[in-house]
Please model this.
Amino acid sequence: MIGRIFWIEVRRSAARWAALVSLPLMLFASSDLGRGSGVLAAGHRQALVLFVPLALGVGAWQARRDRRSAMEELLTTTPRPVWHRRLVTAGALASAAIAGAWLVYALLTGYIGLTGAFVSPSGARLFGVSMLYLVAAVLTGLAVGRLVPWALTPPLLTLGGFVLMILPDALLPVDSAANPLPGRWLLIPTEVGGVGRFETLTAAVLSAQAIWAAGLVTAALVLAVASRYVRLAAVLPLAASVAVAVPLLPAQARDAVILDSSATRRVCTDDAPVVCVTAVSRPALAELREPARRALRILRERLPQAPASVSEAVFDARAGRYLTPDQDNVLYAEVPTLARNGRVAVPEDDLVFGLLVGAGTRPCPFASALPAHERARYDTARVVAALWLLGETPQSVPRDPTWWWWLPSEAAVAAAHARLLALPVDDQMSRVAELREAELVCGPGDRLEALVGDGV
Amino acid sequence: MRPLLLYLRSRHIPIVALATTGVVAMLVWIAQITDHQRGLSLVAVLTGAVATGPGLAGHDIDLDRIAARRWPVWRSVHIAAGCAAVIGLVAASGLAGEPLAPVGQVARDAVGLYGLVAMAAAAFGAQRAWVPAVAWSLLAMTVLPRLWPPGEPTLYGRIATWMIQPYHGTAPTVVAVTLGVVGTITYARWGPRR
Model:
């Protein structure tokens, strides 16, 4: 019986609109699918700024149905308890919202899987919590629509919901080392602490958010279904969920994000020399293979100490540095990929050049703290080393500002390069090799001076 | 005078005016505490437009239709007056400090969105008149710009997100005026859908 009423309600209510609420995720994600489904789920969480107002509007629209069709009086004459009827409607709307959203997510994830990009298990958990927020919004819409059954309620609630969702972003200070955001801000639905390609939320934070969202759903359900004083009971799940969730959150919001081991897992070529990328960058492996091997060959031929394999460097945004545990033997690659499909974004020659910068090393952590002119000298030394290894002129340096914005000026590179070439041939080799040694251990000292001598 | 009073009452104009004024006042306050968050002026104009929506039909559409009144004139004046009122209201926010947005932008958004609401009232009924305007604006403020690569927006990009573009551009203004004119004519000619 309940099942039949439920199906009628799914077909005859605003449930289809609740199911369509998440459809714009297709637009939102279309340019980002190469980054994997974890980024998709995090993006969906931020796009709740759109989905929550829409869900509120759908709920409020549904709540006015009885009045719109002048049924209110007739329905009060039925012996069936009123919460019974409301529960079925709420269930139909909530299930439709969940089904629609998961369908969109499954379609996009299926596409991501087909293109070989990264399908993240933790992305599904992140998305699951977003679902709870969406359901809470639909039910809150129902509750408000029932409380204020005016024709103006659905549009004004939608707009009000939107303003409410953009408020935290406008009011909160920007997270910085000096002024870190407290962890309890993670209870704001759109806040995911800036989850990137390689990252996910800790299990504790995900559970805290799930508990808080479940509390919101329960409270909204009570408001939407119950009548009169019983509605005050909505405070209880809210208070209980806050009491449980807040202790689970870290002191600072930035501690909520960790590297996702399934995202940084290595995917390697079968044949030697081994070239590896992270699971996130799998679509780039085929295009990385040949340039990577060319870079290895060049290093082996021109330097006494050279790495034997290539692996993608993971940038740890929290620590502010690349994870390069074994730079002596592994050439760590920054792989510029396209957000759209995860393929390599730059020509093969640029990729080789990027691998050879700093004689095959990633920048040391101290470099990001250098003042601008010292940083330019540091980068110049690293670029000149790459040019020497390649046997190219400074004019051949790639100039695409999307990826090479950090390159020092061509004049500085040309001057340093000319000074290096003016040295005896054996001296050139030993100086580049010394640069590599210094970069491997991240020792102190001016790299440019060590490479080309004083006075530059 | 009497027909006018009856018209105003049957179209819920007092409630619409009250609700819009209240919401715009609140938005002005929010703009002050958030250091002029972008999009608030659009939300203010939208509030006026969607609040007008349910009032684009009277209590009994059939009864209205058989009345010997020049409905096209009443309807187009309704849209135009609503539009002018909301432009004035949002521009008056300048009295309380920095205005929400330049008057040109407010006028463009109001013309386009009122036209959209009027068109939707003719196409889907007055109760649903708010849906296209709200949905399009929210999409334009959130996901639509992502369809185009970052940087200077293309012509299609500017047309699709006309309500958030700088107001001195041609394409967004053309879209807004077209929507305003076509919407008002459609609604004036056919009236709200039953």
